[in-house]
Amino acid sequence: MITNGDSATPSDFQIQQFRVDLTTQQVAPELVVCEDFEDVFGGMARGFKVLENAPVDDAYAPEAALLMNLGILSGTDFMTGLRTYFNAYSPLKRALNGKPSAMWSTGSGKFGTKLRYLGVDEVLFTGRCPEPMYLRIYRAGDGQAPQFEFRSATELVGLKVNARIQQLYTEYPDAHFAVIGPAGDNYQKVRYAGIALSTVNQLTSGDPKPRWCGRGGMGGVLGSKNLLAIVADIEDPEPSKAPAIMKELNSEIAKGKGSSRFRDKKKGGAGGTWANYEALNPIHAMPEMNFVPTGTAVSLPLYRDNVESTGDFIVKDESCFRCGISCHKNVYDNDNGKAAKFRAKLDFEPLNLLASNIGIFDLDQACVLVELVDEMGMDSISFGTTLSYILEYNNRHPDNPVAGGVRYGEYDNIHDLIEKTGHGELELVGQGSLRASEELEERGYAMHCKGVEFPAYLPQTNPGYPWALAGGHMSMKTYLLVLHERETSIDYWVDAITNRGLSILRDDFTGACKFTGLNNDQMAEAIHAASGGLELSAAEIERTIRRTFLRGYLLEVRQGCTSDDYVMPSEVHQQYAQIELPYFNTPEFFSELQQKVIARLDDMLVSEGFTP
Ligand code: SF4
């Protein structure tokens, strides 16, 4: 990002863009003058503006655009400013008319920081490489422009994710990496392939510890372009002195109240997302057996305290580059009190969806499954929720099962199914729950909206899911409202979906992690300092959140979404007596809510000057 002023406005900024035609491997650099805050902030705020001008009918068409970009804080001194974004029309998210819908996926790690060091704000990929290739971005010397070099990736084909990264690392020891795995290679049979971003911990330990751009099948889009990896190859510069305000904010991030939920208990935190087991399971509000809690204590062995008390495992809190929150809860085998073999990084979502929700209640087995899904390069949320649909189908059709007849809790068969799906040998599972439920003609318990599978929070308690733009919990903050506030009126939920729930989108364009806990005033200070003088307040951030959400909603409508797309699987509207939270998401409630939310969004589009 290039600026020329101390009291800068958006038009004082320019984006260093590179347009890459993968078919010819021609690269066209361009300085794009920013028009508005969306352009300056970057991430999906900028991504949706680019996608608005590049609609496609087929997410895998060579002409489909894939924008890789940074947020304004990515690669700066701001703690957690590490995110890289991939924006494209998704092979998974879909309108009922069959057209793909705009989406983004983002991850931390150190790849984005290396892009920043290279001076690359965004790369717009179109076309398709003639053979499997990887792209190396480097500088020939200090002060030189970034160079783009394409090399054959034949040796990477067939390798799992960590092996790809480690192989590239031996060749490029100063670099960080964005790679797809086998699922991305087999994109035509797997619609939820992700993109892994390497971490410092991964490269120094050799363990499979990347961060993931998991949602929406962005790895498949990269795979469809025959681009298996991107190498951001540059030495780290000498450390610079961060401004005083940045040090103050970084200290708040590392030690303040806002991020404490994600810090380790030993450091005064609440223990990270894994602790959701302890919050949700006692009231039977945690997914088990395809999102229908058993009402029993069967998930107790998966609580972190219970795992550690077996003495079989050691859990360490580890972090991304220079992050003091250290939210990663990495599980190792316990060898006489020492952390031995790395087993898995356990967040609540992959653990729940690849254990309790598929009938696995053994931590050792859960670690293997979580790691295997990552290593095959699949989004653990979409894979896990599609798998639980298949398991439930087989439960209801014992005499006519599918996918080899796999059942809840069958560890060996599930292990086999993961490998087959990632290798493109099981399209029924690889196509995701929407398309599988259409093929099997049983839609009522396929847990998705618009083709994007639900995360590990009960849809029975969250009527906001249909309006999430890019995954139910990371793009619509309504998933725990009933637990915390127990409000069930229509007016409350209309506001939650069209106003409060949008706040979670902020860090989908700032480049920061969602776990910082900073408010918008603090973020405005950070952006002012990191950008070299952008004048802004919390109000500009809030308006950009609102405008970007509305643009995303409009892109869905332009691809053909109607009120029929903003619905939930019918069985989530039933009452489940074991869930100890208010029952309110009835068919009648949802029908009224849907009408009011859509009417409110239409009004908001007009107020913000968008043309439907
Ligand atoms: S909070 Fe966690 S995911 Fe976010 S930057 Fe820190 S260690 Fe990485």
Structure description:
There is one protein chain. With 612 residues, the protein is an alpha+beta fold. The chain has a domain at 2-233: Aldehyde ferredoxin oxidoreductase, N-terminal domain (Aldehyde Ferredoxin Oxidoreductase,  A, domain 1), CATH 3.60.9.10. It is 34% helix and 17% strand. It is built from 22 helices and 18 strands. The protein has helices spanning 37-41, 43-52, 111-118, 161-171, 182-185, 200-205, 218-224, 244-255, 276-280, 304-309, 348-353, 363-375, 380-396, 411-422, 427-430, 433-440, 481-485, 490-498, 507-510, 520-531, 538-558, 587-607, and strands spanning 2-3, 13-21, 26-33, 66-70, 84-94, 100-107, 122-126, 133-139, 146-152, 175-179, 195-197, 211-213, 227-233, 313-318, 328-335, 338-345, 448-449, 452-453. The strands form four sheets. Strands 1, 2, 3, 4, 5, 6 and 7 form a seven-stranded mixed sheet that branches. The chain has a six-stranded mixed sheet with strand order 9-8-13-10-11-12. Strand 8 (133-139) and strand 9 (146-152) form a beta hairpin. Helix 18 (490-498) crosses helix 22. The longest helix is centred in the last third of the chain and has 21 residues, at 538-558. The two termini are 31 Å apart. The mean pLDDT is 96. Iron/sulfur cluster binds next to loops.
